[in-house]
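Example 3.2
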Amino acid sequence: MMPAMAPRPAGRPDALLAGAADPGPRAAASPAAVDHDANVAGALAIALADRIGDATAAAAGVEGVPAAALVALHEWASGKPIQALADGLRLSHSRTVRVIDRLQREGLAVRARDPGDRRSALVDLTPAGRDAARRTMAARADVLGHALAPLGPESRAALARIAEQMLEELTDGRRAARATCRLCDAHACGHHAGRCPVTRGADAAEEAGRSL
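Structure, written as tokens:
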């Protein structure tokens, strides 16, 4: 006869997620443990990233191509060297070239030689690519609108101020700015009016000589 299985220790995450009562503080907290506020902020970041990722991928409708490629080309990477887009997508140059190849096959992007450097290529969206980018940006906006809907105007403004402060501090250079803004609406953030906290962070990093 098989021996009976020992009961699960109280407080295991799977028991808590199933609705069991919290047995109380952990006897020995991990040195890497975070407090409640930090843990909730991290969970919110993942929840939003997952929902935005799913919605934008569905809206872009191009299998194997990051939705952010369309948005970045629409907002700030068009007419720039491929490496700028690679920075934004956090991909290698060769992987980004494959992404552009796929966009070209789908009729969403075109290449042209860089007049300043014949060895380089510049990328732009076709009209169909711009339409796909706008659909992708609208899908992201819908997710964010739904997430912010429970907040009143004052809470929403307070959250925006906190996010601006954190974004400015987290941005350590132009490459990081491109990655952070790969799905952003450049007009909504105030980039062209000097209001974008990510741009301000990148500018400050360059001035301090620590830009990447």
